[in-house]
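Action item from last meeting closed. Structure (396 res):
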C-alpha cells in the first residue's frame, strides 16, 4: 500500500512510518516541525536526542535499503494539504499531525485557540482534499480515549445503541473531554463522521489511550532512528515521567489522590494497531471507531508499579491536582475490535519498565529538572500570568 504518515516526525509518527516501511508499504512522511518549535518555546528537549528528519530518513535508507518520501509543510494550509494527496496518491493516510498536549492547550487563550485551529482546520483541509482527489483513500485518524471522559457507564467503541421513550437509535457515544486539546479531537471526530456520511469517505478514528515506551524494533536498529521521549510537565505523559523521576531520585508526581484511571498502551502496540487499521480498511461511507488501548490503570497504580520495579528507593508525592478531573470514578472500556483484527498486546510489564529505566539512565544527564513540576493550571482561565507565559507569542 501507499501510506502517507502525517506528523511523521513526531513521537509516534516516526516509529509508525518505520514500521509500515518495514512491513513493505510505500511510505512518505509529512510534518511542519511544530513539535520541535514547542520545545524551543517551552525551553525543553526530548530526553533522547533526535536527529533532523532528513538524517533519520537517510539512515533508514542506508540501513534497510527502503526509501521514505518527505513533505515539509503545514496541514492548515489547504494548498499544501491538497498537494500532498495529489502528489503521493496514497491508499491510506495516517493522521498524527496535531498539537497533542492537554496542558499546552490549557496554558492560556492563545494556546487553546492555536490548538483547536491547528487540529480542526488541518483535519478539515485533509477531508476536503480526500473528497476532491480520491474518496477511496482510507483516513486513519488518531483520536483519543480522553474524548469520552470518565462517564458512569461502560465506554463503547465510538457508537452507543440507545433506547429512549420506547424508540431505538445508534448515536455517536456522548463525549465529556477534559481539556481544549481533547475537545479538538471531539470536533475532529464529528467532522470526520459527517464527511463519511455526506461524501462516502472511509475513516477509522483510533481513540488511543496514554502511550508509554520509547523503543520499537525499528527505532532500536540505530541511535539515529530514535524517537523523541518527553518528560516535562507539558508534553511528558504520566508513565514516561514517572520512570525518569524514579531514575533521578525525584518523587513521583501523582496529581491529587491518583484515583483517576486511564487507558494505556505500549508504543510497540501503537505501531501495530496502525498497521492493522491500514491493512483492514473501513468500508466506503463507514466511520469506524476503535478504542486503541490495552489496559486500564489508575495513576496511583502506575506510580506503584514503577516503584515496585525500580531497583532502588522511590518516593511518591501527591501534588495538588493542577487539572480539573475526577479522581474517583467508574471506568470500563470496550476494546475488542483491534484484538479481533489480530493485535496481541504487550501489557505493562517489568521488562518494559526495566528497558525504560535503561533509556532514562543513559540520558539522565540531559534532564532539566525545573521542567518537571507542573505549571499549567486548568482553573486559571485567562489569568495575566498564563497570558504572559514565556514564548506565547511565538508558539500561538
Ligand atoms: P507529537 O507532537 O510528537 O507528533 C505530532 C507531529 O505532528 C509533530 O511532529 C508535529 O510537528 C506535527 N504537526 C502538528 N501540527 C501539524 C500541522 N498543522 N501540519 C503538519 N504537521 C503538524 O505527538 P505524538 O505523541 O506522536 O501524537 C501523535 C498523535 O497521536 C496526536 O494526534 C495525538 O493526539 C495522538 N495521541 C497521542 C498519545 C500519546 O500518548 N502520545 C495518546 C493518544 C493519542
Ligand atoms: N498525571 C499525574 N502526574 C503527572 C502527569 C500526569 O498524576 O506527572 C495524571 C493526569 O492528571 C492525568 C493522567 O495522569 O489524570 C494522564 O495524564 P498524561 O499527561 O499522561 O496524559 P493526557 O494529558 O491525558 O494526554 C496524553 C497525550 C494525549 C493523548 C492522551 C490519551 O499527551 O495526546 O490524547 O494521553 S487519553 O488520556 O486517553 O486521553
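Sequence:
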Amino acid at each position: 500500500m501507499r501510506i502517507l504518515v502525517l506528523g511523521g516526525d513526531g513521537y509516534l509518527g516516526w516509529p509508525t512510518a518505520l514500521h509500515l516501511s518495514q512491513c513493505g508499504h510505500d511510505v512518505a512522511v509529512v510534518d511542519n516541525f511544530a513539535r520541535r518549535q514547542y520545545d524551543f518555546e517551552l525551553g525543553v528537549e526530548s530526553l533522547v536526542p533526535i536527529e533532523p528528519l532528513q538524517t533519520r530518513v537517510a539512515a533508514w535508507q542506508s540501513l534497510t535499503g527502503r526509501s521514505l518520501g518527505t513533505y515539509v509543510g503545514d496541514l492548515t494550509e489547504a494548498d499544501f494539504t491538497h498537494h500532498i494527496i495529489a502528489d503521493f496518491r496514497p491508499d491510506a493516510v495516517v493522521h498524527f499531525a496535531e498539537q497533542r498536549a492537554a496542558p499546552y492547550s490549557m496554558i492560556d487563550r492563545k494556546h487553546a485557540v492555536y490548538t483547536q485551529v491547528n487540529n480542526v482546520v488541518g483535519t478539515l483541509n485533509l477531508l476536503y482534499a480526500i473528497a476532491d482527489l480520491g474518496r477511496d483513500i482510507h483516513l486513519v485518524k488518531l483520536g483519543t480515549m480522553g474524548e469520552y471522559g470518565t462517564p458512569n457507564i461502560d465506554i463503547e467503541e465510538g457508537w452507543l445503541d440507545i433506547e429512549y421513550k420506547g424508540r431505538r437509535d445508534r448515536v455517536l457515544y456522548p463525549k465529556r473531554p477534559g481539556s481544549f486539546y481533547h475537545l479538538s479531537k471531539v470536533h475532529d471526530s464529528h467532522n470526520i463522521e459527517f464527511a463519511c456520511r455526506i461524501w462516502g469517505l472511509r475513516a477509522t478514528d483510533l481513540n488511543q489511550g496514554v502511550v508509554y515506551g520509547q523503543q520499537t524494533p525499528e527505532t532500536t536498529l540505530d541511535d539515529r532512528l530514535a524517537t523523541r521521549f518527553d518528560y516535562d510537565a507539558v508534553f511528558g505523559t504520566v508513565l514516561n515521567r514517572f520512570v525518569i523521576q524514579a531514575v533521578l531520585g525525584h518523587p513521583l508526581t501523582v496529581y491529587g489522590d491518583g484515583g483517576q484511571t486511564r487507558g494505556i498502551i505500549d508504543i510497540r502496540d501503537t505501531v501495530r494497531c496502525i498497521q492493522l487499521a491500514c491493512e483492514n480498511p473501513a468500508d466506503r461511507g463507514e466511520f469506524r471507531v476503535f478504542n486503541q488501548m490495552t489496559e486500564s490503570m489508575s495513576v496511583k497504580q502506575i506510580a506503584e508499579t514503577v516503584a515496585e520495579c525500580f531497583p532502588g528507593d522511590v518516593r511518591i508525592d501527591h501534588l495538588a491536582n493542577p487539572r480539573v478531573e475526577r479522581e474517583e470514578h467508574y471506568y470500563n472500556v470496550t476494546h475488542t475490535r483491534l484484538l479481533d483484527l489480530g493485535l496481541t498486546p504487550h501489557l505493562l510489564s517489568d521488562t518494559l519498565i526495566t528497558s525504560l529505566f535503561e533509556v532514562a539512565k543513559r540520558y539522565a544527564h540531559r534532564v532539566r529538572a525545573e521542567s518537571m513540576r507542573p505549571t499549567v493550571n486548568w482553573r486559571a482561565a485567562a489569568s495575566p500570568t498564563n497570558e504572559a507565559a514565556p514564548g506565547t507569542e511565538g508558539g500561538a
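Note appended to the action item: DSSP finds 14 helices and 14 strands in the chain.
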